Predict the structure of PCI domain-containing protein.
Amino acid sequence: MYPVIDSDNDSEDGRIGGFAKNLKAVTMSSSYLPATTESLDQAQEAKKPSEAISILYRVLENPSSSAEALRIKEKAISNLADLLREENRAEELRSLLTQLRPFFSLIPKAKTAKIVRSIIDAVAKIPNTSDLQISLCKEMVQWTRTEKRTFLRQRVEARLASLLMESKEYSEALALLSSLIKEVRRLDDKLLLVDIELLESKLHFSLRNLPKAKAALTAARTAANAIYVPPDQQGTIDLQSGILHAEEKDYKTAYSYFYEAFEGFNALEDPRAVYSLKYMLLCKIMVSQADDVAGILSSTKVGLQYQGPEVDAMKAVAHAHAQRSLRLFETALRDFKAQLEEDPIVHRHLSSLYDTLLEQNLCRLIEPFSRVEIAHIAELIELPVDHVEKKLSQMILDKKFAGTLDQGAGCLIIFDDPKTDAIYPATLETISNIGKVVDSLYVRSAKIMA
């Protein structure tokens, strides 16, 4: 099945043929190794990763296709993928997946799917390989179409759509998902359907299309209710539900979903638990319950387990909100830029919170005045003059207070709140009632005349 390494060629270029043609050999013999547990142990005992990789490649070169040899090769592939991932050799992982295609014809389709997905996962764990992952998934989609491996193709396409979404290739991802959802619904593969519907919800949310995002999430929940859903997938559903409710300003419901997601991820020791906790704290801050943040973080369940920059960032925001201090707020945004501004979900809500806090502080500062210099307000609030002037003009247009800006003098003139004359609403109500009476009399007269 696989070519035997020729000793002359080996001495000439120092490379292993077949599987190992791209790998420089450190220690090697002139032929493949037997597909036995002893060979795997030899690789495990190797002093250097390159030696272990060389040994595993040579095990895969073994032409034997007995049941035991295939089992050993499967284990060798798993070990080899782990080693290549640890060595950040993404291109070799991609090459390995291509070179294994003859081997896939000898093993069951379910095992093929497991190996393919594990190697793609290994590539994903290597930093800065997004483009390589997309290219690899497209190659595998073409291969699965040729080999008519529908089950595997659908899962690789779902992975490809996720990668395209992360790369902001939204139109291509949406087109791929639309055709995939129709196909999976016909086959009634509910577990895969839940994954795809969830992915569609995230994609529409990224496109700021909330109605479609909610519809896709509802479809995912409906499919999930008919089957057993793994805890990590249930946590993902809860997390997405919380994000959508928070977007609609329903922070109390969002908090309960984030809490459920945190419980699930915490039990699995999933790294997403800290993000669920972060969004829980965000909900508390957004409903002006910043004092509850310290209580949540002091609980035994959270304790020291989730201490880190994500939690510290939310502590800083909670402290700034409790103090009603824009200066502390901006300090938190500057000190924890990666955790706050680079997280699109947190950034969107904190922008709204910052505007609210700025409006409250400005209203409190201008309350004693009827005429005040904008520069003086900017000095009191410790913000640039142009920033304050722009915000004041916006507040006047939004009718947050009555006033006008005298830009020539650089002053803000505040008017007294106009008193509403009660006679106008009463007059309008009277006219409305007279209109109803006239309409009623017209209907009665029409009946009499008939």
